[in-house]
Amino acid sequence: MDHSAHHMAAEPARCKMWMLWNTQIIDTCVVFSQWHIRSNLQFFFSFLAIVALGMLYEYLRVFSRDFDKRIGVKLRVRNARRTPLTASGRSSPERHGDDAEETGLLNGSRVMRKQGFAVPPLYRAMRAVLYGASVGLSFFLMLVFMTYNAYLIFAVILGAGAGHYILSDTIEPNGPADKGMACH
């Protein structure tokens, strides 16, 4: 009797994708196949990594907000030394009959001018990098959420909540409302 068919090599474990709420631990892949969880210990470290990523997202949000405040203070101090501009952006007195700068060229409607200070290119680049990093991380966490794994979803929420608790210990009554965790 030939038993050679019984000696086939074991098939390697594959990632399991669930499109419904699940609590699968073994053979869960997080975002890409290289992050394949094959044991409870790997799942535990993956859980901690996702909590850390949630906290990092919150850190980036708080750091970006504080960075913007520091830039605003520097620009306010720098611009306070210059001649203040009028509502039209001129340093000379307003002439009420001259609306050329205030009227749109194509439709004749009034154009609202941006409020605030022009941000120098270096600061704009630094702000763009921080913004891009936070958007990229938020999309990554959204993909983790889309594993529909209850434990991984909890890890994202736990990380965001813990990060917010640790890093957002003050509030400005007249400041802008917090955006909260969002994909973008």
What does this structure look like?
46% of the residues lie in helices and 2% in strands. It contains three helices and two strands. Strands 1-2 form a two-stranded antiparallel ribbon. A hairpin with a 6-residue loop joins β1 and β2. α1 packs antiparallel against α2 and α1 packs parallel to α3. The longest helix has 41 residues.
Topology:
Blueprint: E1 28-29, E2 36-37, H1 40-80, H2 121-145, H3 150-167
Antiparallel strand pairs: 1-2
Which runs of at least 5 residues are low in confidence (pLDDT < 50)?
94-101
Helices, by number, come to 3
Mean pLDDT: 82
* Major sheet summary line: 2 strands, antiparallel
What percent strand? Answer: under 5%
The overall strand count is: 2
In short:
46% of the residues lie in helices and 2% in strands.
Name its key features.
mainly alpha; 2 strands; two-stranded antiparallel ribbon; single chain; 46% helix; 184 residues
